[in-house]
Amino acid sequence: MFTGIISEVGRIQKIEKIDGGKKLVIECSFGEDVHIDESIAVNGVCLTVIAFDDASFTVQSVEETLRKTNLGDLRVGSHVNLERSLTLEKAIEGHIVQGHVDTTATITEVVKKGADLLVHLEYPKKYEDYIVGRGSVAIDGISLTVARSEGNKFAVAIIPYTWENTNLLYKSEGDSVNIEFDIFGKYIVQYLEKRSGQTAEK
Question: Is 34 in a helix, a strand, or coil?
């Protein structure tokens, strides 16, 4: 489990094709503190550490994850958001993030508004019910608040600190980002859908 508060921005050091997926070696500052089987969110995707050294850690990603997320677009040198899993000593400063990406969205526009940046995104229409104004959403693992929403498009306001200390600094229009919708919102939508189905059957 994660909170959507990015620990740091790592960099892809090496990508190796393996049977059924890829192996990613990611540069970071906390390599010496990592342990085998630790869960780390990479661009919001929960991955398991299989090896590490003082300056990096290694994870594997299967083909399904590569297709469903933007991990398949990564290249050597790509910048990725990193968050280590939540512990009992940490405060939940963002919102509850599972590291289970639901879909990807495309950045359609970045607009400077005062000190903030307004990032506009478009995502598949079938997920429209999961986005609400002022609700929470994780974008490449970053806990953000929906500033506005219309149909299958929404926008989030990014403060300068978040822009400069996450991989958003390296993003531009047309780029893909991972989206994880709020877990509580997903439960509510599922409950209402099931309730509606039961009512219709009666």
Answer: coil
